[in-house]
Amino acid sequence: MDTKEKLNKLRNYAEALESVVVAFSGGVDSSLVAKVCFDVLGGKAMAVTARSETYPAFEYEEATKIAKEIGISHMTIHTSELNIKGFAENPTNRCYFCKSELFGKLKDIARAQGFKNVVDGANFDDTSEHRPGLEAAKELSVRSPLKDLGFRKSDIREISKYLLLSNWDKPSYACMSSRFPYGEAITEDKLVLVAAAEDYLRSIGLRQFRVRHHDTIARIEILPEDFLKLLQNGKRTELINTFKEIGYKYVTLDVEGYRSGSMNEVLKQ
């Protein structure tokens, strides 16, 4: 299937929805869904972004920018994952609680404003990973166009580039709660700590990274080709000093490099 054929399948899917609320984070996946739904349905499509402690300001700014670029109506709501029973304790099904809360709110919005469906940006790659949120989507009848059509991340970037979406090559970004080992309680103070550490890495030009929080230890995951950026020309000392000023006692570089969902590796073991 070439790019146009994939796009046509997605357009046909969107047309069948009739009217839709899109769970919109501003990432590549939800941006493509929002773009195609708006192109096909116009004012019968609306994007909704949830602001919370686990969703950093820079991501919200990006989501706002992309929504304007697309032209879709964009609503912002406020949620608090830390106040959801069971979430802050950080169990292995943590994402189920978060998505249940979010999708429940989006379903309420859809009903109140006369939209027939709610969709998210889950893709087919997600089905082979630990994604408890998929169960929440199923329970609440939230549709996942990209997953249902069998589109992988590579397909999504391909179509997004074809449609000239400015974030087609945006690095993957996961909820801030994914920075903590399962079983370690998530608090607002810890989220602030991790956000500050990741802001520093972003400020020196890194694009794909994670700071995994292990109590007093920061475990930095970056692409192997970026290792030297942190280890030469005085950056190593600057990095150490910055992270210790932020509040970490020990600073480590994970030599295995960045990989999505590395906290799930303990589940496989």
TrEMBL record:
Molecular function GO labels: sulfurtransferase activity
Protein name from the UniProt record: NAD/GMP synthase domain-containing protein
Organism: Kuenenia stuttgartiensis
Domain of life, per lineage: Bacteria
GO annotation, biological process: purine nucleotide metabolic process
Pfam family, one: NAD_synthase
Active-site residues, record numbering mapped to chain: 175
Segments forming domain NAD/GMP synthase: 16-80
